[in-house]
Amino acid sequence: xxxxxxxxxxxxxxxxxxxxxxxxxxxxxxxxxxxxxxxxxxxxxxxxxxxxxxxxxxxxxxxxxxxxxxxxxxxxxxxxxxxxxxxxxxxxxxxxxxxxxxxxxxxxxxxxxxxxxxxxxxxxxxxxxxxxxxxxxxxxxxxxxxxxxxxxxxxxxxxxxxxxxxxxxxxxxxxxxxxxxxxxxxxxxxxxxxxxxxxxxxxxxxxxxxxxxxxxxxxxxxxxxxxxxxxxxxxxx
Length: 237
Known about the structure:
Largest sheet: 6 strands, antiparallel
Shape: elongated
Number of strands: 17
Strand order of the largest sheet: 13-14-6-5-12-15
Helix content: 25-40%
Number of domains: 2
Structural class: alpha+beta
Radius of gyration: 25 Å
């Protein structure tokens, strides 16, 4: 394959990767706490024969949007949403993870957990226990949980030290290898959940653009292939 073919193929590979992410965004447009994802294209320069260089595109950087999603009122006592920055801290078999999905519920043992059964951690790093008779459970703006007028715990709201370095896991969870710290003034809303920050209309529009760009790249490679075939036939005469 000639240099033009490698350059075009690198572009098609990146567009395919972006199309996969767009499809995943659209599929999770109604997933609570989901963060939209995209790719960043960059130029990759490779040394070619004869001391020349070949410029190709690379789409290897995943770009996650942490824009605020719409806050939807549910009225649920254990549904929580964060207004502004911050993440809920949860415990998983693979370690502590961060999430914006706040559709929680008490387990059979009384521990506050996610829909997947992962314990929600308090500001001290321990699971939060909900008494069985906590019919008047209230959550203050700073995440303090109280029942019958007395506090029983505080939701752990943290901020990653390097948000752009976080690694997505399980759709709505993130691994913060660079660490995180407690939010100084968290803003928690009880009876609300944060919806996905995906805009389906914009994503469908981008999908059309990517599809057209992919078709244009395919057409270019077909024409280039035909040019090479024609040249070979001319030389063989």
